[in-house]
Write a structure and sequence with these properties.
It is found in: Cytoplasm. Keywords: Aminoacyl-tRNA synthetase, ATP-binding, Coiled coil, Cytoplasm, Ligase, Metal-binding, Nucleotide-binding, Protein biosynthesis, RNA-binding, tRNA-binding, Zinc. About 45% of the residues lie in helices and about 15% in strands. By secondary structure, the protein is an alpha/beta fold. The chain has two domains: about 240 residues, 2-Layer Sandwich (BirA Bifunctional Protein, domain 2); about 130 residues. The strands form two sheets. Strands 1, 2, 3, 4, 5, 6, 7, 8 and 9 form a nine-stranded mixed beta sheet that branches. Strands 10-11 form a two-stranded parallel ribbon. Helix 3 packs parallel to helix 4, helix 7 crosses helix 8 and helix 7 runs antiparallel to helix 10. The protein is globular, with a radius of gyration of 23 Å. It binds adenosine-5'-triphosphate (ATP) and magnesium ion (3 copies).
């Protein structure tokens, strides 16, 4: 089943259950506290908190998402993309746990010739928060999943909070697909996340969150006046399970780029080694970059632009590690566009602009890469012959500042050379540079200029790169 078909079925199923179909919002979130849209619920946050009355009691969407915090997992796990599509169904003070569980189970297990996904209940496992007897009992009542396959887990995995005192919080329930003994040990989702793939997360927003206890836990202030449902199902995960392939990078919207990259490099995909990971990273990042540029992001040195730059440069670097030293974007981007255009016609309509931005970034980086590599090699040799285990932080800074090497690239290269990077030195040089830039900006604009938009953006860029948003602080211990 093609990814676009999974999307169509998902929206149709929930539309038939009186949900208003809401188109995907941009990847560039309107919420200034969030750098990118990281989940289907992001555009609905105002309705969740009750700040704004919801225009509909039920909604459904398939939301484009970017999660930079998963970047290190890409290509190594079967299930983490930096870009992916999240189906969601939402209730704003309307239905609650019972219906949310019933809908999810029904959609997953309804036969494919009747509009569902046709999963066999024997392949499904469920987790609930350990004290959530209600959810546990609804699963028993509404599904054919036996009690042995409903695991009660702690707050670290099964409790969600918006992260702020006063915001909503509540237990969640996750649905997993068991890929079988070939993929890992028996024992359910609590034991093995390679064998048991999380496919759907149901969040029951039930309580008002209180103050932090200071140890990662927080108080609960009581029941919310309006209880909400927020769910997220990963389309790429469903796609790889239903398409009979091993991971999301081999699904219909991603695999063509992987194949083209393999062709360009003359490497054969599927040997299970480092090359496979690199090809998957290339395929993932090309698609993410395509979708980010489509939504208006341009490569830059901070904030969203820096994330995009980092993705593009990781593609180039991985292609070099695969043995290709020349420009590859003119080969890879059209393939990604062709794979995505049915679902997102704008990638084709706007491809002139999108490709111009991507190709120019590749040209720029290829020019400096060779010089930067030489400087890196010299510094790495010096560190090793001096008996040090870390690369000088000042060199890392120079590579960043003059040659545009994202720090994670330098760290990756250092790791391959058996070295660390002196991060303290690097970080302090970065801070000094930021301070200098701020002082310059102040001087240029004068004291009365309005800095609000720019400074909000900067603040995001500086923190959101490694840190993550409050939304992702999903599972704190209560
Ligand atoms: P995991 O534990 O596998 O990292 P998660 O708990 O972080 O997933 P949620 O935040 O619950 O994921 O998001 C809801 C759903 O979105 C997940 O159940 C999964 O199907 C999908 N999803 C989450 N992250 C990714 C990703 N990086 N790539 C593809 N799909 C994803
Ligand atoms: Mg995750
Ligand atoms: Mg999870
Ligand atoms: Mg989850």
């Amino acid at each position: 089943m093609l990814t676009a078909e999974i999307k169509r079925r998902f929206l149709k199923f929930f539309e038939d259950q009186q949900h208003t179909v809401v188109p995907s919002a941009s990847l560039v979130s309107e919420d200034p506290t969030v750098m990118f849209t990281i989940a289907g619920m992001v555009p609905f946050i105002p309705y969740m908190t009750g700040m704004v009355p919801a225009p509909y009691p039920r909604a459904t969407s398939v939301q484009k998402c970017i999660r930079t915090n998963d970047i290190e997992e890409v290509g190594k796990t079967p299930r983490h993309g930096t870009f992916f599509q999240m189906g969601g169904n939402f209730s704003f003070g309307d239905y609650f746990k019972k219906e949310a569980i019933g809908f999810a189970y029904t959609f997953l297990t309804t036969p494919q010739d009747q509009g569902g996904l046709g999963f066999n209940p024997d392949d499904l496992w469920v987790t609930v928060y350990k004290d959530d007897d209600e959810a546990f009992n609804y699963w028993l009542e509404l599904s054919d999943i036996p009690a042995e396959r409903i695991q009660r887990l702690g707050a670290d995995t099964n409790y969600w909070s918006a992260g702020k005192p006063g915001g909503p919080a509540g237990p969640d329930s996750e649905i997993f697909f068991d890929r079988g003994p070939a993929y890992g040990i028996d024992g359910g989702p609590a034991t093995d996340d390679d064998r048991y793939v999380e496919i759907w997360n149901l969040v029951f927003m039930q309580y008002e969150r209180g103050a932090d206890n200071g140890d990662g836990t927080f108080e609960l202030l009581g029941e919310l006046p309006q209880k909400n449902i927020d769910t997220g199902i990963g389309l790429e995960r469903i796609a790889f399970l239903l398409q009979g392939v091993d991971n999301m990078y081999e699904t219909d919207q991603v695999r063509p780029v992987l194949d083209r990259a393999a062709e360009l490099s003359g490497r054969v995909y599927g040997n299970g080694g480092e090359d496979d990971v690199r090809l998957r990273v290339v395929a993932d990042h090309v698609r993410s970059a395509l979708m980010l540029i489509t939504d208006g992001v341009q490569p830059g040195n901070e904030g969203r632009g820096y994330i995009l730059r980092r993705l593009l440069r990781r593609v180039i670097r991985n292609m070099r590690l695969l043995g290709v030293e020349t420009a590859t974007f003119p080969e890879l981007f059209p393939v990604s566009m062709a794979a995505m255009k049915d679902a997102y016609p704008e990638v084709e309509r706007d491809f002139d602009r999108i490709s111009r931005i991507a190709y120019a970034e590749e040209q720029t980086f290829l020019r400096t890469l060779a010089q930067g590599n030489a400087i890196f090699a010299e510094a790495a040799d010096a560190a090793k012959s001096g008996g040090l285990n870390a690369l000088d932080g000042a060199v890392a800074f120079k590579l960043h500042d003059t040659f545009g090497f994202p720090i994670d690239l330098t760290m990756e290269m250092a790791a391959e050379a058996g070295l660390n990077v002196n991060r303290d030195k690097f970080d302090s040089l970065m801070r000094e540079q930021v301070e200098r830039a701020k002082a310059d900006a102040r001087a240029r604009r004068g004291a009365l200029a309005d800095l609000s938009v720019y400074s909000a953006f900067r603040a995001m860029g500086e923190t959101a790169f490694v840190g993550y948003t409050e939304l992702e602080a999903q599972s704190r211990v209560i």
